[in-house]
Amino acid sequence: MITPRQELILRKVVEAYNATGQPVGSKTLAADPELEPGPSTIRNELAILEEQGLLAHPHTSAGRIPTDAGHRYYVDHLLRALPARTHGMDLQLVRREVDEAMRVTSETLSQVTNLLAIVSAPPLDTATIRRVEVLALQPQVLMVVIITSTGGVSKRVFTYDAPVDPGLAAWAAEYLNERLAGTGLGARTLRSKLQDPGLGPQEAAFVEGLSPAFTELAATAEDTLYVDGTARLFAEQRFQDLSQINELMTMLERRALLLGVLSAALSERDVLVRIGSENEAPALRSLALVAAGYGLPQRKLGTVSVIGPVRMDYSGAINSVREAAAALSRFVEEIYES
Questions:
Q1: Are strands 225-228 and 153-159 parallel, antiparallel or unpaired?
Q2: How many CB atoms lie within 10 A of CB 19?
Q3: With helix as H, strand as E and coil as C, how does the chain read?
Q4: Mean pLDDT of the chain
Q5: Regarding predicted confidence, which is higher, 282 or 218?
Q6: Does residue 94 have a pLDDT over 60?
Q7: Nearest Cα to 304, choosing from 287, 314, 316, 289?
Q8: How far is residue 308's CA from residue 288's CA, in Å, rounded to a whole number?
């Protein structure tokens, strides 16, 4: 445990270091009007904080810098004290398709925080079929369009040896909507829904021909990540060496690994913060991750996150991630219920 005065000094060191990237000395702290003790008392408190592993002393004559543990203490107390804001980020999400909402969220979040922003879209297996369209592109070419409850769109084109009867195509659209609307995207469920002993031979054969558009939908879909702000990390030059960037870029390319890291936020009640060595993934051990889940009241469907140097504005990052997750939750709930 540390005293309230030590806690205040630690907070000042973290905030000053995150703002400047330079070690913070006792004279600098003594000049802060919030700190009443003189330089000698502050030096003693800094030494105690260093003994507890919350600060480090890079050089004999230099000031202190926060360790990962110091950042963790700061963030834990920040999360408890930080007031929630719900209207500070205008994502303009109302009635947009999910892919556009994810893209807008990642772009806006990166601009607000000046960090790398990543949004994971709801997995396809959480969706149901909302509507089916059967469209004649040419007399012998049909396109089946499937719109899901999450706003996703899947298209598949079918080519025939002879022109397709427009009446048969129109009937198929009505039949498929009647049979499949509200059905989950599992292949077995869809196949059983498509099979109807009461259909005539021509209609049954036609529907069977269109069935791959539905039964192969879940198998061919991939979880989607929306990433924005990579260039900002290079421009800010806040990394100690290029190997950090290379490892992070490799992780972004290996989507499954990154999705696994972000999935930890799905079980958190509030924002998940992982600082430096707290990250299990080697590519993130010199970075900080701030993430939150979004979705329905009873189930989180995806994550909103930012990644950047350990020396980041945690207050801004946490608030921005909270707001983005709340906005996406409102949007997704509206989409699922419509």
A1: unpaired
A2: 11
A3: CCCHHHHHHHHHHHHHHHHHCCCECHHHHHCCCCCCCCHHHHHHHHHHHHHCCCEECCCCCCCEEECHHHHHHHHHHHHHHCCCCCCCCCCCCCCCCHHHHHHHHHHHHHHHHCCEEEEECCCHHHCEEEEEEEEEEECCEEEEEEEECCCCEEEEEEECCCCCCHHHHHHHHHHHHHHHCCCECCHHHHHHHHCCCCCCHHHHHHHHHHCHHHHCHHHHCCCCEEEECHHHHHHHCCCCCHHHHHHHHHHHHCHHHHHHHHHHHHHCCCCEEEEHHHCCCHHHCCEEEEEEEEEECCEEEEEEEEEEECCCCHHHHHHHHHHHHHHHHHHHHHHHHC
A4: 83
A5: 282
A6: no
A7: 289
A8: 6
Q: How confident is the model over 285-317, as pLDDT tens digits? A: 888 999 999 988 888 888 999 998 898 999 999
Sheet holding 272-275, edge to edge: 225-228, 116-120, 299-309, 287-296, 272-275
Is 0.85 surpassed by the pTM of this model?
Answer: no
The packing angle between helices 201-210 and 166-180, to 10°, is 70
Measure the CA–CA gap between 179 and 181, rounded to whole angstroms. Answer: 6
Distance, CA of 84 to chain centre: 19
Q: Alpha-carbon dihedral of residues 224, 226, 231, 237, nearest 10 degrees?
A: -90
Q: pLDDT (tens digit, 9 = 90+) per residue, 37-48?
A: 888 899 999 999
Q: Six-digit token pair at 55?
A: 């600060």
From 301, 327, 333, select the one nearest 108 (Cα to Cα): 327
- State the amino acid at position 295 in one-letter form: G
